[in-house]
Amino acid sequence: MKHYFFLGLNFALVLLSLWLHDKSRIWMARRLGDPEAPSRQRSAENPFARVDWIGSVLLPFYLLFRGLPVLGWTKPLEINLENLRRPRRDGLLIALAGPATNLLLALAGIGIIRGLNAAGLMTSPFLFQLLPSFCLANACIGIFNLLPIPPLAGAAAAELFLGGDALSAFEDIKPYGFILILAGVYFNFFDFVTQPVARLVRSFTGF
Questions:
Q1: Over residues 160-168, mean pLDDT
Q2: Are residues 28 and 38 in contact, defined by beta-carbon separation less than 8 angstroms?
Q3: Confidence of residue 157 (pLDDT cuts 50, 70, 90)
Q4: Better-predicted residue by pLDDT, 71 or 52
Q5: 72: how many CB neighbours lie within 10 A of its CB?
Q6: Distance CA 98, CA 153 (A)
Q7: Which of 30, 98, 130, 144 is 20 to 30 A off residue 107, Cα-Cα?
């Protein structure tokens, strides 16, 4: 029973992390001149409208259930580049805002763990279970989303610098990006991301 309780809490923290990932992109888009970005694709008033049910719910829960590092993403944010002052630079900043938020959350979690350890307060099984998992999940989500595979942030960033045949080829594979990701998860392709990140996080947290 305790296992499922912590599984639920970890899943809630992953959902919170992905929500903050998405909100940071929306905030950056508004700040850089495209306030309508979140409502262009989905209603901004519906808190579940921008949830990608595969990338934000099913895949993270499946990985948590199996005790594997968490990967995930949210709905792509459709940007009107004409609204941006410097389209390539600003589009890049919007795309990277989500992964940057996750990496900052991971660093904040590591800082909390190290502070609690130094104060001798990292003794609660509750904290011992949740904080390292929170750090690892955010670190993996942040680095994973930098990969240039649609619908990840790295793909949105890469698309800004493509043209001609390269852009046409990218548009052709765009609808199948999530299939590539799911196949990569099934065949453990993304171990090249999760394993080094997990070792790095554990070296900093001591767990």
A1: 87
A2: no
A3: very high
A4: 71
A5: 27
A6: 8
A7: 30
Distance of CA 28 to the CA centre of its chain: 16
d(CA 193, CA 76): 21
Three-state SS annotation for the chain: CHHHHHHHHHHHHHHHHHHHHHHHHHHHHHHCCCCCHHHHHCCCCCCCCCCCHHHHHHHHHHHHHCCCCCCCCCCCCCCCHHHCCCHHHHHHHHHHHHHHHHHHHHHHHHHHHHHHHHCCCCCCHHHHHHHHHHHHHHHHHHHHCCCCCCCCHHHHHHHCCCCHHHHHHHHHHHHHHHHHHHHHHHCCCCHHHHHHHHHHHHHHHCC
Radius of gyration of the chain (CA): 18
Report the chain's terminal Cα–Cα distance, integer Å.
Answer: 23
pLDDT, averaged across the chain: 89
pLDDT cut 90: percent of the chain above it: 63
Give residue-wise pLDDT tens across range 23-40.
999 999 999 988 887 776
Give dist(CA 172, CA 181) in Å, integer.
16
What phi and psi values does residue 115 have, to the nearest 5 degrees?
Answer: -65, -45
Encoding tokens for residue 70?
Answer: 């968490």
Residue listed under structure tokens 């990985």:
63
* The two three-digit tokens of residue 82, written as one number: 């004409």
| Angle at 80 (CA atoms; ends 77, 85), nearest 5 degrees | 115
